[in-house]
């Protein structure tokens, strides 16, 4: 067979597969519509089901036959589900803007591209809009593998009635964006203070004399730099594209596997998915053994803790509060028993939410 004939044979096969795929996706979308009808009839307006989506994505990952890797395969299914859900209920998701931030990347990674993303200026504003019901969910950064905790997010949870209903991790690559084409012409570098910190080593080495200017977000830095010759921003390639900037240097983060974890916040948490986490806010007695007494119930019920963070309470009543993440859903019997026990051992316990462990 000639190369032409061989190619056209395989292409015919691809066309036929695409046709089948389209029919199957359309059939899937019709099923999602049917689900919406059944839910509406029962007066259930919870169209978005994070636990069900997590289960589907986990199954896709487990059954993926290759040659596409798990990340690619789950990403494709993430988008199919996102489009199907949009037929049931178009979701509005607030994130820390402006357009082009890593928080927007996190929102799209978690929900897929069929949601509308709403940029807001500050973390407390995101909480307020979700509370007010003007958006369905919010996405906020909570911790970075190099720089640690995003304290603003934790502090906002102390007074918020909202729940955590999901988590998503994004690999962060920082680039140096500018109107200039050489490092020698750059006298100031703008970015969010976390990003400046994540690139400290590179900046010390390559731009030791440039002033570092912390601003509200990386994307805001890119927006400002687009109007200021002689400056540069540390931000994402999405921001470079949106604000028309060139990349003077790429991947300038000090840690190659620099990852940020984001939380999805909503007015309710998520039902059991089978692989869940629970986030807690605790205050213990300010006395010898206080912290020990707080952790004993977790150990007694064999609950693993994945994170513990202390923050000044800023309320005067307790000196410090602790943010603790544990494995398991609050409705799992062992977790429920540990929480009962914890309630007796601590001055204050608030369950910030149970939610599926990140799949993507
Ligand atoms: C179809 C449903 O509703 C939504 C859409 C889903 C999908 O497309 O698979 C999954 C969960 C929900 O977010 C459902 O609840 O099963």
UniProtKB/TrEMBL annotation:
Residues passing through the membrane, by range: none
Pathway linked to the protein: Metabolic intermediate biosynthesis; prephenate biosynthesis; prephenate from chorismate: step 1/1; Amino-acid biosynthesis; L-phenylalanine biosynthesis; phenylpyruvate from prephenate: step 1/1
UniProt keyword Isomerase present: yes
EC number: 4.2.1.51, 5.4.99.5
SUPFAM superfamilies assigned: ACT-like (SSF55021), Chorismate mutase II (SSF48600), Periplasmic binding protein-like II (SSF53850)
Gene3D superfamilies linked to this entry: 3.30.70.260, Chorismate mutase, Periplasmic binding protein-like II
Protein name: Bifunctional chorismate mutase/prephenate dehydratase
Native source organism of the sequence: Thioalkalicoccus limnaeus
Superkingdom of the source species: Bacteria
InterPro entries reported in the protein's UniProt record: ACT-like_dom_sf, ACT_dom, Chor_mutase/pphenate_deHydtase, Chorismate_II_sf, CM_dom_sf, CM_II_prokaryot, G/b/e-P-prot_chorismate_mutase, Preph_deHydtase
UniProt domain ACT: residue ranges: 279-356
């Amino acid at each position: 067979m000639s190369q032409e004939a061989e190619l056209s044979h395989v292409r015919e096969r691809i066309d036929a597969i695409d046709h089948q795929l389209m029919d199957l996706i359309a059939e899937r979308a019709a099923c999602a519509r049917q689900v919406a009808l059944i839910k509406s009839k029962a007066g259930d307006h919870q169209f978005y089901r994070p636990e069900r989506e997590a289960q589907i994505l986990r199954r896709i990952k487990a059954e993926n036959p290759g040659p596409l890797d798990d990340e690619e395969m789950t990403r494709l299914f993430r988008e199919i589900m996102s489009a199907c859900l949009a037929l049931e209920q178009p979701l509005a998701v607030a994130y820390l803007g402006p357009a082009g931030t890593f928080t927007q990347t996190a929102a799209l990674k978690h929900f897929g591209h069929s949601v509308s993303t709403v940029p807001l200026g500050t973390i407390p504003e995101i909480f307020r809009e979700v509370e007010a019901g003007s958006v369905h969910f919010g996405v906020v950064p909570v911790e970075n593998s190099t720089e640690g905790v995003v304290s603003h997010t934790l502090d906002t949870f102390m007074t918020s009635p909202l729940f955590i209903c999901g988590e998503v991790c994004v690999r962060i690559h920082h680039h140096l964006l500018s109107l200039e084409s050489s490092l020698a012409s750059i006298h100031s570098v703008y970015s969010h203070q976390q990003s400046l910190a994540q690139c400290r080593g590179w900046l010390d080495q390559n731009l030791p004399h440039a002033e570092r200017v912390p601003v509200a977000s990386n994307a805001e830095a890119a927006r400002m730099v687009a109007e200021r010759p002689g400056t540069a921003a540390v931000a994402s390639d999405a921001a470079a594209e949106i604000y028309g900037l060139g990349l003077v240097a790429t991947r300038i983060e000090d840690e190659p596997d620099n990852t940020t974890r984001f939380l999805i916040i909503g007015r309710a948490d998520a039902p059991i998915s089978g692989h869940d986490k629970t986030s807690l806010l605790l205050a213990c007695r300010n006395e010898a053994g206080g912290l020990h007494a707080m952790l004993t119930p977790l150990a007694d019920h064999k609950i693993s803790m994945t994170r513990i963070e202390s923050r000044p309470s800023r309320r005067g009543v307790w000196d410090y509060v602790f943010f603790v993440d544990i494995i398991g859903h609050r409705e799992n019997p062992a977790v429920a028993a540990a929480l009962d026990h914890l309630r007796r051992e601590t001055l204050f316990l608030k369950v910030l939410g149970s939610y599926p462990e990140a799949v993507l």
